[in-house]
Specification:
The complex is a heterotrimer of chains A (277), B (417) and C (388). Chain A is of the alpha/beta class. Chain A has helices at 21-29, 127-132, 140-150, 171-175, 189-198, 224-231; strands at 34-38, 63-71, 74-83, 91-93, 118-125, 137-138, 158-162, 177-178, 181-182, 186-187, 203-206, 235-238, 251-255, 265-267, 270-275. Chain A has a single domain, classed as 3-Layer(bba) Sandwich (Glucose Oxidase, domain 1), CATH 3.50.30. Chain A is built from 6 helices and 15 strands. In chain A, strands 1-15-13-5-7-11-12-4-14 form a 9-stranded mixed sheet, with helices on one face. In chain B, strand 9 (171-174), helix 3 and strand 10 (196-201) form a beta-alpha-beta unit. Chain B is 29% helix and 20% strand. Chain C is built from 14 helices and 11 strands. Chain C has a 9-stranded mixed sheet with strand order 3-2-4-7-1-8-11-10-9, with helices on both faces. A two-stranded antiparallel ribbon of chain C has the order 5-6. In chain C, a hairpin with a 4-residue loop joins strand 10 and strand 11. Classes of the chains: A alpha/beta (277), B alpha/beta (417), C alpha/beta (388). Chains in contact: A-B, B-C. The interface between B and C is large, with 39 and 37 residues.
Chain lengths: 277, 417, 388
C-alpha cells in the first residue's frame, strides 16, 4: 500500500466556535420535543475489525474477559476486562490518525475542542445506489444534487453517508471481501476535496468499516477521505447505524470520543438528537 | 489393515454414562525410563555399559555385575511366549470391566523375561512373538506381545484399541481448518475414516479457497471458532463439545520476528493470545467435556492433539516471539495432560520443524510439507505415543537438545540449523 | 564349604492357632496379641520368660515387630521381623534356633498373623514390591492368580500334568480338613466340583485358589531343657534350610529353591525322604505342592504327576500330606500361611492333632515358600521335625 506523501504545508487550525452550543440546543428546545436515536453498534466480540495484510500490525477486535460474576472470583459483583483497538466497532477518527494530520495542533482525541462533540449533521441517502453496487462512490455531483433539495451543507457540520450497510448483520457480508479486496461504498477523492475545501465540514461518517470506500487503496490519492479530512484537521466516524432514522437535515450529533492520551481515535457512544416535526 | 470399526450405536439417553477408570499408574522413577521412550514410540530397556546385560524389570544397578552405568537402548522385542493365562477375575476396576484379559511371560532373545499383554492374534504358548510398547490409559508404558510374523495393528484387538486414539469412526474437532496445515489435517483424518470432522473457522470474512473445497468432504462441517474470543469458544463447546472424541488444536498465529525486528508487542500479543491463551480457552471449555465422556464407549472422548513446534523446545531467534509463545503452549499442554490424565484422555504434542507455508517461506529446506505433517498427526492417533517430532529438522533438533541443550542454544544463536 | 552346624537340643512347643475368620474389623495387632497370649496360656509360662520374638505379618504396617514389643508389653533381648511371606515360619525357626543354641535368647515366640479387611488383599498386592508395581500389577491386576496361572500352565504343558492330578490333591486336603474344627471350609469337595468350578485365571479355577482370611499361628522355640522345665510336649528340630532367588535363569519357575539344598537338609537331619511320615507344604495353589514334592526329593524333577497318581494323600493314605487341610482348605491368614504347617506338624508329632491324625508319626517335614517379587517365588525353606 503506497501512502501518498504529505501535502505541502498549508496548515489550517480547526474552525473555532462556529457552533455555539447554546444556539444549537435552543434550536431544539423550542420545538415539539425530541427523539434520541442511537447511532452506535454494540461493542461485541462478533463485530468484525478492519482487515489489514498479515505482515502489518493488526487492530484488535473487541474482546471481553470476565473478572467475576457473583461467584468465588467476586461474590457480589459482575465485571469484565475489555480490550479493543482505538478503531474497533463504532468509532471516531482524530486527525493524528493519518500522516497528513500528524503535525496539526489539538489533533488527538484528548486534545480536541470539546465544542466539536455536539454538531449538526447532513445525512445523504445512498442506500439504493449502494444496494446495487457495493463499490458505489459518492461524488461532488451527488452532493450538489442533494444540496439543491435540502440546502447548502453548513460549515462545522457532519456529513453522514447513509448506505444501510449497517443492516448487513452477517459479518461476512458486512466486510464483503474477495480476492480483489474489500468492496464497500464510500466517497471519491473529488467529493472529499469538495467537502473539505468548499464546505469546511466537521467530518465524514459512514456505516461501513471505514470512512473510505473498500477499494480506496487504489484511488489517487489512496484513502482520500482519511488523507484530506485528517490533513485538514477534520474527523471521521465509521460503523454507524440507524442513519435511516435521521432526517436529511436538522439532527444534532453527540459524538464524544474517549479521552485517551495521544489517542488516534476511540470507540464511542454516538447518538442523534432529532427534533420532532 | 485395520478392520472397520462398527458404526456407533446411538446411546440410550436414560442410562448413566460410564465413568473412566485407569490401569494401575504407580511406577518407580527408574521404571519411568520405559515410559519416556514409549512416549516417543520406542521400546527401550536398560543395558549395562560394563557387561552388556539387558535389565528387566528396570533397576538401579546391573543384575549381574552391579555396575550403575545402565543406559536405555532400543530393543527389537523378539522372543518366545513361554507361558500365558487368561484372567477371569481382576482386582482393579479397569481390568474388571474388560475381562477376560490375556497376559503372558515372554522370554526375550535379549535374555530377560517380560510380562506382557497378549494381542488376540498371538497363538497359544509356546510360540514366537515380538514385544512392542504402547502407552496405556494411565499414560504408562505397556508391553504388548504381537505375533512375530505380520504386523497386526493395536486397534485390531478391541481390548488394546483403547491404547490408541484411532480416528476411525470418531468425531473430531480441528480448531483451525483454514490454514494449509489445518486443511491437510482435515483431509488426512477423512482418509483415516473419521465419522465427523468439525472444521473451526475464525474471521469468516477472510475467505480461503482450500476451505471451500473442504466443505465437500462428507464428514466435514465448518463451525465458527475464534480461539481469541472466549465467547466463541464457549458457544462452540456448548453446541458440539459433548460430542467431540478428539480435539486437534491447529490454531496458530505465526509471525517471523525477532525481538528487535518488530517494535512494540502487538504481534507478540497476538501470538500469545492464539497460541497460548487460545489453548487455555479451549482447555477450559472443552477439557471437562472430554473428561466426562472418556469412558462413554464405544464412541468415547480419547485424545487432545496440540500442534506445537520444535521451536517450543529451543527458541529460534529469527522467530523469537513466536518460539516463546509455542514454549508457553508446550508448558500449558503439560498441565493439560495432568488434568486429563485421571480420565485417561491422552494429550499428544507434535513438534514439527519449519513447515512449507507462508511464514516459513524464507527458511531453507528441508521443510515439512503440510501433507507430511498431517500424515504424522494421523499416524500418531493410530499409534500409541504422546511426543512426536515429525520430519528431519525436528529429529535433528531433538537429538541436539537431548545431547546438550546449551550447545543447541548456541548453535541457534549463530543462525545455524 | 563348611557343613552347617546341627540343631541338637532345639525344640518346638506350644502350637497355637487363633481361629480364622473371613473378614475382621480388628487390626493385625489383635490377632498377633492373641497368639502371644495363647502361647503363654498353652505353655503356662510367665510372659517375662519370653525373651525373644519373631514376627511375620503383611498388615501390621506401619508397625513391625518393634511396635509389637510396646503394644504387647514385651521386653526382649532378641527381636526379628521376617518379611518372607510363606517362608517366614521356617526362616523364623532357623533364626530362633541359633539364638537359643547360642544363648542369645531362652524362649523365642514365633508368631505369624494378619487381619483381613474387605480391601486388604487388593491393597497388599497392589504395592507388593517394586518389580510387581512396575512390571506385573499393571498387566491385568490379577495378583498371585496371574503368577500361579503362569506356573501351572507351564508345568502342565511341560510335564503332562492334568487338572485331575491337582484336583486329587485338593480333594484329599479337603478330606483332611473335614476333621479340623477350625478349617473355614466345611463341605466335602468332589473331583467333579473341582474340575467344573468357575475359571479364575486359565487354567486355574475356583478351588485352585486359597481364601485369604484373618487369623494367626504361633509356637515357641527353646532348648530341650527349658521345655522339660515347664513340662511341655515338644518336637525336635533335626534340620532346616532356606534359599532365596534360586535358579534365576530358569525361564519359568518349574523348580523351587529346595532342590539346591535338600541334600544338605537330609544330611543335617540324618534322615531321608523315605523316613518322612508326613509332609506339610506351603500350598496357596496346587502346583506349588508338586514343586515341593519334587524339590524335597519325594520324586524326581518333572515326575510329580506320576507321584500323585501313585499315592493317596489323606492322613491315613500312602503319603500323608497337609493333614490339617492346608491353606487351600483351612484358609490363608496372610503371613501365617507359612506357620500353619509348622503348628500342624508339632501337633502331629506330640500326639495332639486337632483333626486327622497320622498314625505313628515320628518324622515330619514342613516347607515354606513365598514372595512373588516379580515372576517367581523368591523365598523357600524347609525343616525336618521329629517326635520327642
Amino acid at each position: 500500500m503506497k501512502v501518498a506523501k504529505k501535502a505541502p504545508a498549508k496548515k489550517r487550525s480547526p474552525k473555532a466556535m462556529t457552533n455555539d452550543p447554546a444556539a444549537l440546543l435552543s434550536g431544539v428546545v423550542g420545538s415539539r420535543g425530541v427523539t434520541l436515536v442511537d447511532l452506535t453498534q454494540t461493542l461485541s466480540p462478533d463485530f468484525p475489525p478492519i482487515v489489514l495484510p498479515p505482515e502489518m500490525g493488526q487492530s484488535r477486535p473487541f474482546r471481553m474477559e470476565e473478572i467475576s460474576r457473583y461467584d468465588d472470583r467476586g461474590p457480589a459483583w459482575y465485571w469484565n476486562n475489555v480490550s479493543f483497538g482505538e478503531h474497533t466497532g463504532t468509532h471516531f477518527d482524530a486527525p493524528v490518525h493519518w500522516i497528513s494530520g500528524s503535525d496539526l495542533p489539538n489533533n488527538s482525541v484528548d486534545s480536541l475542542p470539546i465544542e466539536h462533540f455536539i454538531a449538526p449533521a447532513g445525512v445523504i441517502d445512498c442506500s439504493t445506489e449502494a444496494q446495487k453496487d457495493a463499490d458505489f462512490l459518492l461524488t461532488a455531483t451527488h452532493v450538489k444534487a442533494w444540496e439543491k433539495r435540502h440546502g447548502r451543507i453548513a460549515a462545522g457540520s457532519w456529513v453522514l453517508m447513509r448506505t444501510d450497510w449497517s443492516k448487513r448483520a452477517d459479518p461476512v457480508a458486512y466486510q464483503n471481501l474477495d480476492a480483489t479486496g474489500q468492496h464497500t461504498p464510500g466517497p471519491d477523492p473529488g467529493c472529499v476535496r469538495f467537502l473539505v475545501q468548499e464546505r469546511d465540514v466537521l467530518g465524514f461518517g459512514t456505516e461501513t468499516i471505514g470512512t473510505d470506500a473498500g477499494q480506496a487503496a487504489h484511488f489517487k490519492p489512496p484513502y482520500p477521505c482519511h488523507y484530506y479530512m485528517h490533513g485538514a484537521g477534520k474527523y471521521g466516524m465509521q460503523c454507524l447505524c440507524n442513519l435511516d432514522r435521521l432526517p436529511p437535515t436538522g439532527a444534532l450529533i453527540v459524538a464524544a470520543p474517549l479521552k485517551i492520551l495521544q489517542g488516534s481515535g476511540s470507540p464511542l457512544r454516538v447518538f442523534a438528537i432529532v427534533p420532532k416535526r | 489393515m485395520p478392520r472397520a470399526a462398527k458404526i456407533p450405536i446411538r446411546k440410550n439417553p436414560i442410562l448413566r454414562t460410564r465413568q473412566p477408570t485407569l490401569p494401575p499408574a504407580s511406577r518407580s522413577r527408574v521404571a519411568l525410563g520405559l515410559t519416556a521412550a514409549a512416549a516417543r514410540g520406542r521400546f527401550e530397556l536398560q543395558v549395562c555399559r560394563d557387561c552388556g546385560a539387558v535389565q528387566y524389570p528396570p533397576r538401579e544397578v546391573c543384575r549381574d555385575c552391579l555396575s550403575h552405568r545402565l543406559a536405555w537402548r532400543q530393543q527389537d522385542g523378539r522372543g518366545e511366549l513361554v507361558t500365558e493365562t487368561t484372567l477371569r477375575s481382576a482386582q482393579e476396576l479397569y481390568f474388571r470391566e474388560r475381562l477376560p484379559w490375556r497376559v503372558g511371560i515372554v522370554r526375550l532373545n535379549a535374555g530377560v523375561n517380560v510380562i506382557a499383554h497378549l494381542h488376540e492374534r498371538v497363538g497359544t504358548a509356546p510360540c514366537r512373538v515380538r514385544v512392542e510398547v504402547a502407552l496405556d490409559r494411565a499414560g504408562q508404558a505397556a508391553l504388548i506381545a504381537v505375533p512375530e510374523q505380520g504386523r497386526p495393528h493395536l486397534s485390531d484387538d478391541p481390548r488394546l484399541r483403547e491404547m490408541t486414539c484411532d480416528p476411525r469412526g470418531r468425531k473430531i474437532l480441528v480448531t483451525d481448518g483454514k490454514s494449509v496445515v489445518g486443511q491437510a489435517i482435515v483431509r488426512a483424518l477423512a482418509a483415516a475414516g473419521a465419522e465427523v470432522i468439525w472444521i473451526g473457522e475464525a474471521e469468516p470474512w477472510k475467505k480461503v479457497a482450500g476451505l471451500e473445497a473442504l466443505r465437500e468432504l462428507p464428514p466435514a462441517t465448518v463451525v465458527p471458532l475464534d480461539v481469541t474470543d472466549g465467547k466463541s469458544v464457549r458457544e462452540l463447546a456448548g453446541e458440539i463439545g459433548a460430542k467431540v472424541d478428539i480435539l486437534i488444536n491447529t490454531a496458530d498465529h505465526h509471525s517471523a520476528f525477532s525481538i528487535a525486528s518488530r517494535r512494540g508487542v502487538e504481534t507478540a500479543q497476538s501470538e500469545m493470545d492464539v497460541n497460548y491463551l487460545g489453548l487455555l480457552r479451549l482447555a477450559q471449555e472443552f477439557a471437562p467435556l472430554l473428561k466426562a465422556r472418556a469412558a462413554d464407549e464405544p464412541a468415547n472422548a480419547i485424545a487432545w492433539v496440540n500442534l506445537l513446534s520444535i521451536f517450543a523446545l529451543a527458541n529460534y531467534p529469527p522467530h523469537g516471539t513466536y518460539s516463546a509463545s509455542k514454549a508457553a503452549a508446550y508448558s500449558l499442554s503439560q498441565a493439560l495432560r495432568a488434568e486429563l490424565r485421571p480420565a485417561g484422555v491422552c494429550v499428544i504434542n507434535l513438534f514439527p520443524g519449519p513447515v512449507d507455508d507462508e511464514w516459513d517461506q524464507l527458511e531453507m529446506p528441508p521443510k515439512l510439507s503440510p501433507v507430511s505433517l498431517a500424515s504424522a498427526v494421523a499416524e500418531a492417533l493410530k499409534g500409541s505415543v504422546e511426543d512426536v517430532y515429525p520430519g528431519d529438522v525436528a529429529q535433528d533438533w531433538l537429538a541436539r537438545h537431548l545431547d546438550n541443550p546449551k550447545a543447541l542454544e548456541r548453535e541457534l544463536e549463530e543462525g545455524a540449523r | 564349604m563348611v557343613a552347617p552346624a546341627g540343631y541338637d537340643d532345639v525344640v518346638l512347643a506350644a502350637p497355637v492357632t487363633i481361629p480364622y475368620v473371613r473378614y475382621s474389623i480388628r487390626s493385625a495387632h489383635w490377632f498377633l496379641g492373641r497368639a502371644l497370649g495363647g502361647l503363654i496360656a498353652a505353655a503356662k509360662i510367665p510372659k517375662a520368660r519370653i525373651d525373644g520374638l519373631a514376627v511375620a505379618s503383611f498388615t501390621l504396617a506401619p508397625d513391625t515387630a518393634v511396635g509389637l514389643t510396646q503394644h504387647l508389653g514385651l521386653t526382649v533381648r532378641w527381636l526379628d521381623h521376617v518379611p518372607m511371606g510363606g517362608a517366614s515360619g521356617i526362616v523364623s525357626i532357623r533364626r530362633a534356633a541359633r539364638a537359643v543354641q547360642s544363648g542369645d535368647a531362652e524362649i523365642v515366640a514365633c508368631i505369624g498373623g494378619d487381619t483381613n479387611h474387605t480391601d486388604s488383599f487388593r491393597r497388599n498386592t497392589s504395592v507388593f514390591s517394586q518389580f510387581s508395581q512396575d512390571a506385573v500389577y499393571p498387566y491385568g491386576s490379577g495378583g498371585p492368580n496371574t503368577s500361579f496361572a503362569f506356573l501351572t500352565a507351564y508345568y502342565m504343558r511341560t510335564y503332562g500334568a492334568e487338572r485331575k492330578d491337582f484336583g486329587k490333591l485338593c480333594v484329599a486336603q479337603r478330606n483332611n480338613a473335614l476333621k479340623n474344627p477350625i478349617a473355614l471350609f466345611k463341605k466335602r469337595l468332589t473331583l467333579d466340583q473341582y474340575l467344573d468350578a468357575r475359571l479364575v485365571a486359565d487354567p486355574l479355577r475356583l478351588f485352585d485358589c486359597v481364601m485369604p482370611c484373618a487369623g494367626a499361628e504361633g509356637f515357641l522355640v527353646m532348648r530341650r531343657a527349658t521345655a522339660v522345665e515347664f513340662g511341655l510336649r515338644f518336637a525336635r528340630l533335626l534340620g532346616a534350610i532356606e534359599r532365596h532367588n534360586a535358579f534365576p535363569d530358569d525361564p519359568v519357575q518349574y523348580r523351587g529353591g529346595w532342590a539346591m539344598d535338600r541334600d544338605a537338609l537330609y544330611a543335617q537331619a540324618a534322615v531321608g525322604p523315605d523316613d518322612i511320615d508326613f509332609l506339610e507344604t506351603y500350598d496357596d495353589y496346587p502346583v506349588i505342592n508338586v514343586l515341593q514334592f519334587e524339590g524335597l526329593g519325594f520324586c524326581k524333577e518333572g515326575e510329580g504327576t506320576a507321584f500323585i497318581r501313585a499315592n493317596t494323600f489323606e492322613a491315613d493314605g500312602s503319603f500323608p500330606f497337609n493333614t490339617s487341610g492346608g491353606q487351600l482348605s483351612v484358609g490363608q491368614a496372610g503371613a501365617a500361611g507359612g506357620h500353619l504347617g509348622i503348628t500342624e506338624a508339632i501337633r502331629q508329632l506330640t500326639g495332639e492333632a486337632k483333626g486327622a491324625c497320622v498314625a505313628n508319626a515320628r518324622h515330619g517335614l514342613v516347607s515354606g515358600f513365598g514372595m512373588i517379587n516379580y515372576d517367581r517365588g523368591v523365598c523357600s525353606g524347609a525343616a525336618v521335625l521329629a517326635a520327642a
